[in-house]
Cytosol aminopeptidase domain-containing protein (Brassica campestris), 510 residues
Amino acid sequence: MAHSLGLTQPKPTDHPKISFSAKDIDVTEWKGDLLVVGVTEKDSTRDSSSKFENPILNKLDAHSSGLLALVSSEEDFNGKPGQSTVLRLPGLGSKRIGLIGLGKSAAFQSLGEAVATVAKASQSSSVGVALASHETESKLSSASALASGVVLGLFEDGRFKSESKKPSLSSVDIIGFGTGPELEKKLKYAEDVSYGVIFGRELTNSPANVLTPAVLAEEAVKVASSYSDVFTANILNEEQCRELKMGSYLAVAAASANPPFFIHLVYRPSSGDVKTKLALVGKGGGYNIKAGPGSSIELMKFDMGGSAAVLGAAKAIGEIKPPGVEVHFIVSACENMISGTGMRPGDVITASNGKTIEVNNTDAEGRLTLADALVYACNQGVDKIVDLATLTGACVIALGTSMAGIYTPNDELATEVIAASEKSGEKLRRMPLEESYWEMMKSGCADMVNTGGRAGGSITAALFLKQFVSEKVQWMHIDMAGPVWNEKKKSGTGFGVATLVEWVQTNSSA
Protein backbone atom coordinates (compact mmCIF):
# COMPACT_ATOMS: atom_id res chain seq x y z
CA MET A 1 0.00 0.00 0.00
CA ALA A 2 1.32 3.46 -0.90
CA HIS A 3 1.88 6.13 1.75
CA SER A 4 -1.37 7.87 2.66
CA LEU A 5 -1.89 11.53 3.45
CA GLY A 6 -0.85 11.92 7.10
CA LEU A 7 1.14 8.66 6.90
CA THR A 8 -1.79 6.81 8.45
CA GLN A 9 -1.94 3.07 7.91
CA PRO A 10 -4.60 0.85 9.49
CA LYS A 11 -3.42 -1.89 11.79
CA PRO A 12 -4.05 -5.38 10.39
CA THR A 13 -7.49 -6.67 11.27
CA ASP A 14 -7.72 -9.80 13.36
CA HIS A 15 -11.20 -11.08 14.07
CA PRO A 16 -10.79 -14.26 16.09
CA LYS A 17 -13.41 -16.80 15.10
CA ILE A 18 -15.93 -17.75 17.76
CA SER A 19 -16.82 -21.41 18.10
CA PHE A 20 -20.62 -21.74 18.26
CA SER A 21 -22.16 -24.98 19.50
CA ALA A 22 -25.76 -26.00 20.07
CA LYS A 23 -26.31 -27.81 23.37
CA ASP A 24 -29.43 -29.54 24.58
CA ILE A 25 -28.63 -29.74 28.29
CA ASP A 26 -30.02 -28.50 31.56
CA VAL A 27 -28.77 -24.95 32.15
CA THR A 28 -27.64 -25.87 35.65
CA GLU A 29 -25.25 -28.44 34.15
CA TRP A 30 -23.44 -26.01 31.86
CA LYS A 31 -19.84 -25.28 32.85
CA GLY A 32 -17.85 -22.26 31.73
CA ASP A 33 -17.03 -18.64 32.50
CA LEU A 34 -20.42 -16.99 32.04
CA LEU A 35 -23.97 -18.31 31.69
CA VAL A 36 -26.28 -15.67 30.20
CA VAL A 37 -30.05 -16.01 30.46
CA GLY A 38 -32.41 -13.84 28.43
CA VAL A 39 -35.32 -12.80 30.63
CA THR A 40 -38.59 -11.12 29.62
CA GLU A 41 -40.61 -8.99 32.02
CA LYS A 42 -43.05 -11.87 32.39
CA ASP A 43 -40.21 -14.30 33.19
CA SER A 44 -39.02 -12.09 36.04
CA THR A 45 -42.30 -12.09 37.98
CA ARG A 46 -42.15 -13.46 41.54
CA ASP A 47 -44.63 -15.32 43.71
CA SER A 48 -45.74 -14.27 47.18
CA SER A 49 -42.53 -15.64 48.68
CA SER A 50 -40.36 -13.63 46.23
CA LYS A 51 -39.41 -16.75 44.27
CA PHE A 52 -39.30 -16.79 40.47
CA GLU A 53 -42.41 -18.25 38.86
CA ASN A 54 -40.40 -19.11 35.75
CA PRO A 55 -39.21 -22.74 36.06
CA ILE A 56 -35.72 -22.19 34.60
CA LEU A 57 -34.99 -19.17 36.77
CA ASN A 58 -36.48 -20.99 39.76
CA LYS A 59 -34.16 -23.96 39.14
CA LEU A 60 -31.11 -21.71 38.85
CA ASP A 61 -32.20 -19.93 42.01
CA ALA A 62 -32.51 -23.23 43.87
CA HIS A 63 -28.99 -24.25 42.83
CA SER A 64 -27.69 -20.94 44.17
CA SER A 65 -29.54 -21.39 47.48
CA GLY A 66 -31.94 -18.54 46.73
CA LEU A 67 -29.22 -15.98 46.03
CA LEU A 68 -30.23 -15.40 42.38
CA ALA A 69 -33.67 -14.12 43.35
CA LEU A 70 -32.31 -12.15 46.28
CA VAL A 71 -29.42 -10.43 44.53
CA SER A 72 -31.30 -9.73 41.27
CA SER A 73 -34.08 -8.15 43.34
CA GLU A 74 -31.55 -5.95 45.12
CA GLU A 75 -30.24 -4.96 41.67
CA ASP A 76 -33.84 -4.01 40.69
CA PHE A 77 -33.68 -6.39 37.74
CA ASN A 78 -37.15 -6.97 36.28
CA GLY A 79 -36.50 -7.99 32.67
CA LYS A 80 -36.96 -4.59 31.07
CA PRO A 81 -35.12 -4.03 27.78
CA GLY A 82 -31.59 -2.75 28.24
CA GLN A 83 -31.26 -4.12 31.77
CA SER A 84 -28.44 -6.49 32.60
CA THR A 85 -26.78 -7.78 35.71
CA VAL A 86 -23.83 -10.14 36.13
CA LEU A 87 -23.56 -12.07 39.39
CA ARG A 88 -20.99 -14.41 40.89
CA LEU A 89 -23.01 -17.03 42.77
CA PRO A 90 -22.08 -20.37 44.36
CA GLY A 91 -23.73 -23.65 43.42
CA LEU A 92 -23.69 -23.22 39.63
CA GLY A 93 -21.42 -24.77 37.02
CA SER A 94 -20.60 -21.35 35.60
CA LYS A 95 -18.28 -18.88 37.30
CA ARG A 96 -20.81 -16.09 36.72
CA ILE A 97 -24.43 -15.79 35.69
CA GLY A 98 -25.75 -12.87 33.68
CA LEU A 99 -29.39 -11.85 33.33
CA ILE A 100 -30.31 -9.74 30.31
CA GLY A 101 -33.68 -8.00 30.06
CA LEU A 102 -35.66 -8.61 26.88
CA GLY A 103 -38.71 -6.48 27.62
CA LYS A 104 -42.04 -7.85 26.43
CA SER A 105 -40.49 -10.36 24.03
CA ALA A 106 -37.12 -11.55 22.77
CA ALA A 107 -35.25 -9.68 20.04
CA PHE A 108 -32.54 -12.22 19.38
CA GLN A 109 -29.93 -10.16 17.56
CA SER A 110 -30.16 -7.53 20.31
CA LEU A 111 -29.80 -10.30 22.89
CA GLY A 112 -26.66 -11.52 21.11
CA GLU A 113 -25.20 -8.02 21.13
CA ALA A 114 -25.95 -7.75 24.86
CA VAL A 115 -24.25 -11.12 25.42
CA ALA A 116 -21.16 -9.76 23.67
CA THR A 117 -21.23 -6.66 25.86
CA VAL A 118 -21.36 -8.56 29.16
CA ALA A 119 -18.79 -11.08 27.90
CA LYS A 120 -16.37 -8.24 27.13
CA ALA A 121 -17.04 -6.55 30.47
CA SER A 122 -16.44 -9.78 32.41
CA GLN A 123 -13.53 -10.86 30.14
CA SER A 124 -15.18 -14.24 29.65
CA SER A 125 -13.78 -16.66 27.10
CA SER A 126 -16.55 -19.29 27.27
CA VAL A 127 -20.20 -18.29 27.39
CA GLY A 128 -23.44 -20.23 27.52
CA VAL A 129 -26.68 -18.58 26.38
CA ALA A 130 -30.20 -19.69 27.25
CA LEU A 131 -33.69 -18.24 27.41
CA ALA A 132 -35.86 -18.33 30.49
CA SER A 133 -38.77 -19.11 28.13
CA HIS A 134 -39.16 -19.75 24.41
CA GLU A 135 -41.84 -18.07 22.33
CA THR A 136 -43.41 -19.48 19.19
CA GLU A 137 -40.89 -18.31 16.56
CA SER A 138 -38.51 -20.71 14.87
CA LYS A 139 -35.67 -21.82 17.12
CA LEU A 140 -33.44 -22.11 14.03
CA SER A 141 -33.97 -18.47 13.09
CA SER A 142 -33.72 -17.36 16.72
CA ALA A 143 -30.39 -19.13 17.24
CA SER A 144 -29.08 -17.70 13.96
CA ALA A 145 -30.01 -14.14 14.95
CA LEU A 146 -28.48 -14.68 18.39
CA ALA A 147 -25.18 -15.82 16.85
CA SER A 148 -25.18 -12.81 14.51
CA GLY A 149 -25.69 -10.49 17.45
CA VAL A 150 -22.75 -11.98 19.35
CA VAL A 151 -20.34 -11.63 16.40
CA LEU A 152 -21.47 -8.09 15.58
CA GLY A 153 -21.60 -7.07 19.24
CA LEU A 154 -17.96 -8.04 19.73
CA PHE A 155 -16.82 -5.88 16.82
CA GLU A 156 -14.81 -2.79 17.70
CA ASP A 157 -12.85 -1.02 14.99
CA GLY A 158 -9.46 -0.32 16.55
CA ARG A 159 -7.46 -0.12 13.30
CA PHE A 160 -6.78 3.60 13.68
CA LYS A 161 -6.19 3.69 17.45
CA SER A 162 -2.73 3.47 18.95
CA GLU A 163 -4.04 0.97 21.51
CA SER A 164 -6.99 -1.38 21.25
CA LYS A 165 -8.21 -4.37 23.23
CA LYS A 166 -9.00 -7.76 21.78
CA PRO A 167 -12.04 -9.57 23.17
CA SER A 168 -11.29 -12.82 24.97
CA LEU A 169 -14.51 -14.58 23.97
CA SER A 170 -13.74 -17.74 21.99
CA SER A 171 -16.71 -20.09 22.43
CA VAL A 172 -20.48 -19.74 22.78
CA ASP A 173 -22.81 -22.60 23.65
CA ILE A 174 -26.42 -21.95 22.65
CA ILE A 175 -28.56 -23.93 25.09
CA GLY A 176 -32.12 -25.11 24.60
CA PHE A 177 -32.54 -24.17 20.93
CA GLY A 178 -32.20 -27.76 19.75
CA THR A 179 -29.30 -29.54 18.09
CA GLY A 180 -28.50 -31.19 14.78
CA PRO A 181 -26.94 -30.45 11.39
CA GLU A 182 -29.66 -28.01 10.30
CA LEU A 183 -29.02 -25.79 13.32
CA GLU A 184 -25.25 -26.03 12.88
CA LYS A 185 -25.70 -24.95 9.25
CA LYS A 186 -27.78 -21.96 10.36
CA LEU A 187 -25.14 -20.91 12.87
CA LYS A 188 -22.40 -21.13 10.21
CA TYR A 189 -24.52 -19.04 7.82
CA ALA A 190 -25.02 -16.41 10.54
CA GLU A 191 -21.27 -16.23 11.13
CA ASP A 192 -20.49 -15.90 7.41
CA VAL A 193 -22.97 -13.07 6.94
CA SER A 194 -21.83 -11.31 10.12
CA TYR A 195 -18.19 -11.25 9.04
CA GLY A 196 -19.37 -9.81 5.72
CA VAL A 197 -21.19 -7.09 7.67
CA ILE A 198 -18.02 -6.41 9.67
CA PHE A 199 -16.01 -6.07 6.45
CA GLY A 200 -18.62 -3.58 5.24
CA ARG A 201 -18.33 -1.65 8.51
CA GLU A 202 -14.56 -1.48 8.23
CA LEU A 203 -14.74 -0.16 4.68
CA THR A 204 -17.30 2.45 5.72
CA ASN A 205 -15.22 3.52 8.72
CA SER A 206 -12.01 3.92 6.71
CA PRO A 207 -11.13 7.58 6.09
CA ALA A 208 -10.67 8.87 2.56
CA ASN A 209 -6.93 9.45 3.01
CA VAL A 210 -6.55 5.70 3.58
CA LEU A 211 -9.32 4.12 1.50
CA THR A 212 -8.65 5.67 -1.89
CA PRO A 213 -10.31 4.22 -5.02
CA ALA A 214 -7.11 2.24 -5.65
CA VAL A 215 -7.15 0.74 -2.15
CA LEU A 216 -10.85 -0.10 -2.44
CA ALA A 217 -10.05 -1.93 -5.67
CA GLU A 218 -7.24 -3.77 -3.86
CA GLU A 219 -9.67 -4.84 -1.14
CA ALA A 220 -12.09 -6.12 -3.79
CA VAL A 221 -9.32 -8.12 -5.46
CA LYS A 222 -8.41 -9.64 -2.08
CA VAL A 223 -11.98 -10.88 -1.72
CA ALA A 224 -11.89 -12.46 -5.17
CA SER A 225 -8.47 -14.01 -4.49
CA SER A 226 -9.65 -15.49 -1.19
CA TYR A 227 -12.42 -17.36 -3.03
CA SER A 228 -10.71 -17.91 -6.37
CA ASP A 229 -12.63 -21.15 -6.93
CA VAL A 230 -15.82 -19.14 -7.46
CA PHE A 231 -14.72 -15.50 -8.01
CA THR A 232 -13.04 -13.52 -10.77
CA ALA A 233 -12.05 -9.85 -10.64
CA ASN A 234 -11.87 -7.26 -13.40
CA ILE A 235 -10.64 -3.80 -12.40
CA LEU A 236 -10.99 -1.13 -15.10
CA ASN A 237 -8.66 1.88 -15.06
CA GLU A 238 -9.48 5.36 -16.30
CA GLU A 239 -8.47 4.70 -19.90
CA GLN A 240 -10.55 1.52 -20.08
CA CYS A 241 -13.55 3.41 -18.70
CA ARG A 242 -13.03 6.11 -21.32
CA GLU A 243 -13.08 3.44 -24.03
CA LEU A 244 -16.47 2.36 -22.66
CA LYS A 245 -17.62 6.02 -22.89
CA MET A 246 -18.31 6.34 -19.14
CA GLY A 247 -18.44 10.13 -19.32
CA SER A 248 -20.75 10.54 -16.34
CA TYR A 249 -18.52 8.52 -14.00
CA LEU A 250 -15.28 10.05 -15.24
CA ALA A 251 -16.63 13.60 -14.89
CA VAL A 252 -16.99 13.02 -11.16
CA ALA A 253 -13.43 11.70 -10.93
CA ALA A 254 -11.86 14.49 -12.98
CA ALA A 255 -10.77 16.75 -10.09
CA SER A 256 -9.04 14.18 -7.91
CA ALA A 257 -5.33 13.34 -7.77
CA ASN A 258 -6.43 9.78 -6.95
CA PRO A 259 -7.43 8.02 -10.19
CA PRO A 260 -10.76 6.19 -10.47
CA PHE A 261 -11.06 2.41 -10.55
CA PHE A 262 -14.16 0.60 -11.77
CA ILE A 263 -14.58 -2.65 -9.81
CA HIS A 264 -16.28 -5.74 -11.24
CA LEU A 265 -16.27 -9.03 -9.34
CA VAL A 266 -18.15 -12.07 -10.64
CA TYR A 267 -19.32 -15.00 -8.55
CA ARG A 268 -20.02 -18.20 -10.47
CA PRO A 269 -20.72 -21.49 -8.69
CA SER A 270 -18.00 -24.06 -9.26
CA SER A 271 -20.52 -26.64 -10.47
CA GLY A 272 -24.10 -26.91 -11.68
CA ASP A 273 -26.20 -24.80 -14.01
CA VAL A 274 -26.87 -21.10 -13.44
CA LYS A 275 -30.58 -20.32 -13.42
CA THR A 276 -30.43 -16.61 -12.53
CA LYS A 277 -27.96 -13.77 -13.08
CA LEU A 278 -27.95 -10.90 -10.58
CA ALA A 279 -26.04 -7.64 -10.26
CA LEU A 280 -25.36 -5.73 -7.05
CA VAL A 281 -24.24 -2.17 -7.75
CA GLY A 282 -22.79 0.04 -5.01
CA LYS A 283 -22.16 3.77 -4.94
CA GLY A 284 -18.62 4.85 -4.15
CA GLY A 285 -17.60 7.83 -2.02
CA GLY A 286 -18.91 11.37 -2.08
CA TYR A 287 -17.96 14.84 -0.96
CA ASN A 288 -20.48 17.17 0.66
CA ILE A 289 -19.15 20.73 0.47
CA LYS A 290 -22.30 22.35 1.85
CA ALA A 291 -21.64 24.05 5.19
CA GLY A 292 -24.01 24.44 8.12
CA PRO A 293 -25.76 22.26 10.69
CA GLY A 294 -26.28 18.70 9.54
CA SER A 295 -23.93 18.94 6.58
CA SER A 296 -21.71 16.18 8.05
CA ILE A 297 -18.79 17.01 5.80
CA GLU A 298 -16.40 15.16 8.15
CA LEU A 299 -18.54 12.01 7.90
CA MET A 300 -18.54 11.76 4.14
CA LYS A 301 -16.38 8.65 4.48
CA PHE A 302 -19.71 6.83 4.97
CA ASP A 303 -20.93 8.03 1.58
CA MET A 304 -19.46 4.86 0.07
CA GLY A 305 -21.72 2.70 2.25
CA GLY A 306 -23.39 1.27 -0.85
CA SER A 307 -20.12 -0.09 -2.20
CA ALA A 308 -19.21 -1.35 1.29
CA ALA A 309 -22.48 -3.31 1.38
CA VAL A 310 -21.81 -4.81 -2.05
CA LEU A 311 -18.27 -5.90 -1.19
CA GLY A 312 -19.34 -7.14 2.25
CA ALA A 313 -21.98 -9.26 0.53
CA ALA A 314 -19.32 -10.56 -1.88
CA LYS A 315 -17.20 -11.74 1.04
CA ALA A 316 -20.15 -13.56 2.61
CA ILE A 317 -21.21 -15.10 -0.71
CA GLY A 318 -17.66 -16.41 -1.15
CA GLU A 319 -18.05 -18.33 2.11
CA ILE A 320 -21.62 -19.54 1.55
CA LYS A 321 -21.26 -20.43 -2.16
CA PRO A 322 -24.95 -20.53 -3.15
CA PRO A 323 -25.65 -22.81 -6.14
CA GLY A 324 -27.47 -21.95 -9.34
CA VAL A 325 -26.93 -18.18 -9.27
CA GLU A 326 -24.34 -15.89 -10.89
CA VAL A 327 -23.72 -12.58 -9.14
CA HIS A 328 -21.96 -9.48 -10.47
CA PHE A 329 -20.61 -7.07 -7.84
CA ILE A 330 -20.05 -3.64 -9.38
CA VAL A 331 -18.59 -0.49 -7.81
CA SER A 332 -17.66 2.68 -9.69
CA ALA A 333 -15.08 4.02 -7.22
CA CYS A 334 -13.81 7.58 -7.51
CA GLU A 335 -13.36 10.81 -5.57
CA ASN A 336 -15.46 13.91 -6.12
CA MET A 337 -13.07 16.75 -5.31
CA ILE A 338 -12.54 20.42 -6.12
CA SER A 339 -9.87 21.63 -8.54
CA GLY A 340 -9.37 23.40 -11.82
CA THR A 341 -10.00 20.15 -13.68
CA GLY A 342 -13.29 19.33 -11.97
CA MET A 343 -16.81 19.50 -13.36
CA ARG A 344 -18.69 22.77 -12.89
CA PRO A 345 -22.36 23.64 -12.45
CA GLY A 346 -23.82 23.93 -15.92
CA ASP A 347 -21.50 21.40 -17.55
CA VAL A 348 -23.12 18.83 -19.85
CA ILE A 349 -21.77 15.29 -19.58
CA THR A 350 -22.56 12.15 -21.57
CA ALA A 351 -23.20 8.74 -20.02
CA SER A 352 -22.23 5.45 -21.64
CA ASN A 353 -25.75 4.87 -23.00
CA GLY A 354 -25.53 8.17 -24.89
CA LYS A 355 -27.85 10.17 -22.63
CA THR A 356 -26.74 13.70 -21.75
CA ILE A 357 -26.89 15.27 -18.30
CA GLU A 358 -26.74 18.94 -17.33
CA VAL A 359 -24.94 19.16 -13.98
CA ASN A 360 -26.93 21.58 -11.85
CA ASN A 361 -25.51 20.26 -8.56
CA THR A 362 -21.93 19.01 -8.29
CA ASP A 363 -22.66 17.57 -4.83
CA ALA A 364 -25.18 15.15 -6.37
CA GLU A 365 -22.32 13.12 -7.79
CA GLY A 366 -23.28 9.63 -6.62
CA ARG A 367 -26.03 9.26 -9.17
CA LEU A 368 -23.60 10.27 -11.92
CA THR A 369 -21.24 7.43 -11.00
CA LEU A 370 -24.15 5.01 -10.68
CA ALA A 371 -25.47 5.94 -14.12
CA ASP A 372 -22.54 4.34 -15.94
CA ALA A 373 -22.38 1.49 -13.42
CA LEU A 374 -26.02 0.60 -14.14
CA VAL A 375 -25.45 0.69 -17.91
CA TYR A 376 -22.44 -1.58 -17.43
CA ALA A 377 -24.46 -3.96 -15.23
CA CYS A 378 -27.20 -4.26 -17.85
CA ASN A 379 -24.57 -5.09 -20.46
CA GLN A 380 -23.55 -8.17 -18.43
CA GLY A 381 -26.80 -9.88 -19.40
CA VAL A 382 -28.21 -9.98 -15.87
CA ASP A 383 -31.86 -10.63 -15.03
CA LYS A 384 -32.11 -8.41 -11.95
CA ILE A 385 -30.20 -5.46 -10.51
CA VAL A 386 -30.23 -3.99 -7.02
CA ASP A 387 -28.24 -0.80 -6.50
CA LEU A 388 -27.44 0.64 -3.09
CA ALA A 389 -26.44 4.21 -2.35
CA THR A 390 -26.32 6.79 0.39
CA LEU A 391 -27.98 8.97 -2.19
CA THR A 392 -30.22 11.62 -0.64
CA GLY A 393 -30.82 13.54 2.54
CA ALA A 394 -34.45 13.61 1.43
CA CYS A 395 -34.79 9.91 2.17
CA VAL A 396 -33.38 10.46 5.67
CA ILE A 397 -35.94 13.21 6.28
CA ALA A 398 -38.73 10.88 5.13
CA LEU A 399 -37.71 7.66 6.89
CA GLY A 400 -35.22 8.58 9.61
CA THR A 401 -32.06 6.67 10.38
CA SER A 402 -33.32 3.14 11.05
CA MET A 403 -34.66 2.18 7.63
CA ALA A 404 -33.84 2.52 3.95
CA GLY A 405 -36.17 3.43 1.11
CA ILE A 406 -36.59 1.15 -1.89
CA TYR A 407 -37.72 2.25 -5.35
CA THR A 408 -38.68 -0.14 -8.13
CA PRO A 409 -41.29 -0.40 -10.87
CA ASN A 410 -41.38 -4.19 -10.36
CA ASP A 411 -43.73 -5.59 -7.70
CA GLU A 412 -42.21 -9.07 -7.83
CA LEU A 413 -38.72 -7.76 -7.13
CA ALA A 414 -40.05 -5.58 -4.31
CA THR A 415 -41.66 -8.64 -2.71
CA GLU A 416 -38.42 -10.64 -2.99
CA VAL A 417 -36.18 -8.00 -1.45
CA ILE A 418 -38.59 -7.03 1.32
CA ALA A 419 -38.93 -10.71 2.28
CA ALA A 420 -35.12 -10.96 2.38
CA SER A 421 -34.91 -7.88 4.61
CA GLU A 422 -37.46 -9.31 7.02
CA LYS A 423 -35.32 -12.42 7.41
CA SER A 424 -32.15 -10.38 7.85
CA GLY A 425 -33.67 -7.94 10.33
CA GLU A 426 -32.85 -4.86 8.22
CA LYS A 427 -35.73 -2.44 7.71
CA LEU A 428 -36.83 -1.40 4.23
CA ARG A 429 -39.77 0.73 3.17
CA ARG A 430 -41.10 0.81 -0.39
CA MET A 431 -41.41 4.36 -1.69
CA PRO A 432 -43.34 5.67 -4.70
CA LEU A 433 -41.63 5.96 -8.05
CA GLU A 434 -43.87 8.78 -9.24
CA GLU A 435 -43.30 9.22 -12.97
CA SER A 436 -44.93 12.66 -13.09
CA TYR A 437 -42.06 14.00 -10.98
CA TRP A 438 -39.77 13.53 -13.98
CA GLU A 439 -40.89 16.98 -15.13
CA MET A 440 -38.59 18.39 -12.44
CA MET A 441 -35.62 16.61 -14.03
CA LYS A 442 -35.91 18.10 -17.51
CA SER A 443 -33.16 20.31 -18.88
CA GLY A 444 -33.28 23.02 -21.51
CA CYS A 445 -29.98 21.96 -23.09
CA ALA A 446 -29.59 18.24 -22.28
CA ASP A 447 -31.69 15.13 -21.79
CA MET A 448 -31.94 15.76 -18.04
CA VAL A 449 -30.48 17.58 -15.06
CA ASN A 450 -28.91 15.63 -12.23
CA THR A 451 -31.12 17.03 -9.44
CA GLY A 452 -34.70 18.18 -9.32
CA GLY A 453 -34.76 20.35 -6.23
CA ARG A 454 -35.72 19.62 -2.62
CA ALA A 455 -39.32 18.47 -3.13
CA GLY A 456 -39.48 14.70 -3.61
CA GLY A 457 -35.69 14.59 -3.82
CA SER A 458 -35.29 10.87 -3.17
CA ILE A 459 -37.96 10.05 -5.78
CA THR A 460 -36.42 12.21 -8.50
CA ALA A 461 -33.02 10.68 -7.70
CA ALA A 462 -34.46 7.21 -8.27
CA LEU A 463 -36.14 8.36 -11.49
CA PHE A 464 -32.76 9.65 -12.66
CA LEU A 465 -31.18 6.22 -12.12
CA LYS A 466 -34.04 4.54 -13.95
CA GLN A 467 -32.92 6.29 -17.17
CA PHE A 468 -29.84 4.06 -17.25
CA VAL A 469 -31.50 0.68 -16.77
CA SER A 470 -32.71 -1.52 -19.62
CA GLU A 471 -36.46 -2.17 -19.61
CA LYS A 472 -35.65 -5.88 -19.98
CA VAL A 473 -33.99 -5.95 -16.55
CA GLN A 474 -35.78 -5.95 -13.19
CA TRP A 475 -34.26 -3.12 -11.15
CA MET A 476 -34.41 -1.75 -7.63
CA HIS A 477 -32.72 1.25 -6.03
CA ILE A 478 -32.09 1.25 -2.27
CA ASP A 479 -31.44 4.65 -0.70
CA MET A 480 -29.62 3.76 2.53
CA ALA A 481 -28.46 7.24 3.56
CA GLY A 482 -30.27 6.92 6.90
CA PRO A 483 -29.17 3.57 8.34
CA VAL A 484 -25.58 3.59 7.00
CA TRP A 485 -24.18 5.18 10.18
CA ASN A 486 -24.66 4.62 13.92
CA GLU A 487 -24.09 8.00 15.50
CA LYS A 488 -24.05 6.63 19.05
CA LYS A 489 -21.29 4.14 18.23
CA LYS A 490 -19.56 6.49 15.76
CA SER A 491 -19.39 3.63 13.28
CA GLY A 492 -20.73 2.36 10.02
CA THR A 493 -23.45 -0.26 10.39
CA GLY A 494 -22.74 -2.52 7.43
CA PHE A 495 -26.39 -2.02 6.47
CA GLY A 496 -27.48 -3.90 3.37
CA VAL A 497 -25.04 -6.81 3.52
CA ALA A 498 -27.40 -9.22 5.27
CA THR A 499 -30.36 -8.40 3.02
CA LEU A 500 -28.29 -8.74 -0.17
CA VAL A 501 -26.97 -12.14 0.88
CA GLU A 502 -30.46 -13.33 1.79
CA TRP A 503 -31.78 -12.09 -1.57
CA VAL A 504 -29.03 -13.93 -3.45
CA GLN A 505 -29.94 -17.07 -1.50
CA THR A 506 -33.59 -16.59 -2.52
CA ASN A 507 -32.54 -16.57 -6.18
CA SER A 508 -30.24 -19.56 -5.83
CA SER A 509 -31.16 -23.23 -6.11
CA ALA A 510 -30.23 -23.88 -2.46
